[in-house]
Amino acid sequence: MTPVRILVADDHEVVRRGVRAVLEGQAGWGVCGEARSGREAVALAVALQPDVVVLDITMPELNGLDATRQLRRLVSAKVIILTVHESDQVVSEVLDAGAHGYVVKTDAGRTLVEAIRAVLGHQTFVSKGAHGSRERRPRARGAGSGAGAAGPLTPREREVVQLLAEGKSNKEIGVVLGITAKTAETHRAHVMAKLDLHSMSELVRYAIRNRIIEA
After folding, report:
1. What mean pLDDT is reported for the chain?
2. Does one domain contain both 121 and 167?
3. What CATH number does residue 118 fall under?
4. Are residues 103 and 190 located together in one domain of the fold?
5. What angle do CA 167, 168, 174 make, to 5 degrees?
6. Is residue 90 within 8 Å of residue 70, measured between CB atoms?
7. Which end of the chain is more exposed for a tag (fewer CB within 10 A), N or C?
8. Residue 170 lies inside a defined structural domain of this protein
9. Which pLDDT does position 139 carry in this prediction?
10. Nearest alpha-carbon partner for 99 in 87, 118, 86, 108
11. Residues 108 and 167 in one domain
12. SS3 state at 6
């Protein structure tokens, strides 16, 4: 039997250790890599080509929803989102982003293995602890990655909004995104104009309201 290779992405080391312990207790399963940010998760997934990516929804530099959208375009791995949220709205956002599974963190020790088995069997999994039905049809590759799922901003603009809301300067944004500080400044100006925002506090509120960052 071909081993199952799993990438674990969470910015808290203790969570990554706990998830690794659960997963590596399963015969034929192994954690092939760990990521501490959404951006690192995407890069490692492209490099390692895992079968499954277990991804926290709240991640620095690139949140779990936007990371999922990128993963669905770039790799064939199944994506399972870990979250503390239990609501229909968050379930819908996660599945619309293209994730194959939704696991509530408080239930992960018991259901994460079940979730991985389900998505590997081409089923969509939603924790019983979350509102909404687990009986959802598998989504086509790339589903939910369109502009409608990301709101009025382009994917790059959403990245810029998250980095700005996290307090990064134009220079730091440039380093993260591989662009010049001047280009980052241009993106910033376009975002503020497009959203009709006039201060960083307004931008942060927008980011929180649209689940680009957590409060």
Report:
1. 88
2. no
3. 3.40.50.2300
4. no
5. 160
6. no
7. N
8. yes
9. 43
10. 118
11. no
12. strand
Residues paired with 55 in a beta bridge: 9, 81
Residue numbers of the domain that contains 84: 4-126
Same domain, 53 and 105: yes
Task: Let me know: does 97 contact 147? Beta carbons within 8 Å.
Answer: no
Q: Which of 6, 2, 116 is closest to 50 using CA atoms? A: 6
Instruction: Provide the H-helix boundaries in the chain.
Output: 13-23, 38-48, 64-74, 88-96, 108-120, 147-150, 155-165, 170-177, 181-194, 200-209
Q: Which of 93, 71, 97, 102 is nearest to 7 (CA)?
A: 71
- Asked if 72 and 145 count as a contact pair (C-beta separation under 8 A), the reply is yes
- Name the burial class of residue 209, with classes exposed (0-12), middle (13-18) and buried (19+) by CB atoms within 10 angstroms of its CB: exposed
Cα distance between residue 14 and residue 32, in whole Å:
17
pLDDT (0 to 100) of residue 129: 62
**98 and 46 in one domain?**
yes
Count CB-CB contacts under 10 A for residue 4.
18
Task: Look up residue 197 and give its two tokens.
Answer: 């925002």
In a domain, 137, yes or no: no
Q: Which two tokens stand for residue 46?
A: 């492209």
What CATH number should be reported for the domain holding residue 190?
A: 1.10.10.10
User: Residue 207: how many CB atoms within 10 A of its CB?
Assistant: 21
Q: What is the pLDDT of residues 60-104, one digit of tens each?
A: 999 999 999 999 999 999 999 999 888 888 899 999 999 999 999
| Closest to 41 measured CA to CA, from 25, 27, 52 | 52
